[in-house]
């Protein structure tokens, strides 16, 4: 369910300058740091474009982020991000196209892909403490010729079942090397890893053997429940109308929504998303499927 937009308009993001002030503080909380010479300048006031007083080079608050090069206003970005955070069910490009009164569906879809990428970056921290790892073969839709790959799941079990943090990743294969790479990406190296079969892992696993254990039945069932929730969410929200090449983006969206669902402050969820959107590691890499086109939800 979406929050009334009037609450957004009366928030911190009601004008372009208000957005600039917020995002400037978000990117440079300890004062502007020139990306060219590294000089920190506390006295520079928030502005969209900043000129370094030492090297005289110019940069913007969105440079090298997912928002870089966008023709959309910052108010529009905040409006879309706010609506994305305000609904648990999931966002579609059609909804975004209607909300922003866009004439082109592809523009809405590309914009939404960037928001999903921002959600992924916001939730990119590895799972810590006690972590269950498991894999799941997603059921194939009978009418589809597009076979979904298996997915790997890392689930923090040290928290309550209502707030346990989860990360999901598409598996490129079932070999021990593939499983190990996924574990290394999703799980902190100092975590205690709960895994059904250590033979899944290769010798290159960052987690020491003495920190690898068998999960209890209760722990395993908690992981199964989260997997079922992910599948149900994909089926209900997107009716599985997702091509395999784009599956990771939707899994990232599910993780972001589940991991922030219990947060009482919607502004905190938005700020969390903005952390990803403003990340300087957020630029698309070559081969990023979000840069492609093709009939998507």
Description:
This protein has 2 domains: 5-122, no CATH class; 130-258, 2-Layer Sandwich (Nucleotidyltransferase, domain 5), CATH 3.30.420. The strands form 3 sheets. Strands 7-6-5-8-9 form a 5-stranded mixed sheet, with helices on both faces. The chain has 9 helices and 9 strands. The protein is globular and about 55 Å long. It is 38% helix and 11% strand. With 297 residues, the chain is an alpha/beta fold.
Secondary-structure map:
Layout: H1 5-9, H2 16-27, E1 32-33, E2 40-41, E3 49-51, E4 58-60, H3 74-85, H4 93-99, H5 105-122, E5 130-136, E6 151-156, E7 166-170, H6 176-186, E8 192-195, E9 212-213, H7 217-238, H8 247-260, H9 266-277
Parallel strand pairs: 5-8, 8-9
Antiparallel strand pairs: 1-2, 3-4, 5-6, 6-7
> What spatial form do the alpha-carbon principal axes imply?
globular
By DSSP (H or I, 4+ residues per run), the number of helices equals 9
- In spatial order, strands of the major sheet run 7-6-5-8-9
Mean pLDDT: 86
Oligomer: single chain
CATH topology of the largest domain: Nucleotidyltransferase, domain 5
Task: Give a nutshell description of this structure.
This protein has 297 residues and is an alpha/beta fold.
Features:
5-stranded mixed beta sheet, disordered C terminus, Nucleotidyltransferase, domain 5, single chain, two-stranded antiparallel ribbon, 9 helices, 297 residues, globular, 38% helix, 2 domains, alpha/beta
């Amino acid at each position: 369910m979406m929050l009334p937009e009037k609450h957004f308009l009366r928030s911190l993001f009601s004008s372009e300058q208000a957005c600039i002030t917020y995002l400037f503080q978000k990117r440079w909380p300890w004062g502007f740091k020139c990306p060219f010479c590294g000089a920190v300048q506390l006295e520079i006031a928030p502005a969209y474009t900043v000129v370094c007083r030492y090297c005289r080079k110019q940069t913007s608050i969105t440079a090298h982020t997912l928002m870089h090069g966008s023709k959309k206003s910052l108010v529009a970005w905040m409006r879309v991000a706010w609506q994305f955070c305000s609904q648990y069910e999931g966002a579609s490009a059609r909804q975004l196209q209607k909300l922003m009164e866009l004439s082109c569906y592809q523009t809405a879809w590309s914009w939404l892909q960037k928001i999903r990428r921002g959600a992924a970056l916001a939730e990119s921290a590895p799972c810590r403490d006690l972590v269950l790892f498991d894999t799941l073969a997603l059921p194939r839709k009978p009418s589809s010729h597009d076979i979904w790959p298996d997915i790997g799941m890392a689930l923090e079990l040290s928290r309550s079942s209502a707030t346990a943090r989860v990360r999901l990743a598409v598996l490129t294969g079932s070999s021990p090397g593939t499983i190990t790479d996924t574990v290394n990406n999703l799980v902190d190296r100092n975590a205690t890893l709960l895994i059904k079969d250590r033979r899944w892992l290769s010798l290159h696993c960052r987690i020491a053997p003495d920190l690898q254990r068998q999960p209890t039945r209760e722990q395993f069932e908690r992981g199964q429940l989260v997997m079922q929730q992910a599948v149900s969410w994909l089926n209900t929200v997107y009716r599985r109308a997702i091509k395999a090449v784009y599956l990771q983006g939707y899994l990232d969206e599910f993780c972001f929504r589940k991991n922030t669902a219990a947060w009482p402050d919607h502004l905190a969820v938005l700020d969390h998303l903005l952390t990803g959107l403003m990340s300087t590691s957020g630029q698309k890499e070559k081969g990023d499927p979000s840069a492609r086109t093709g009939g998507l939800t």
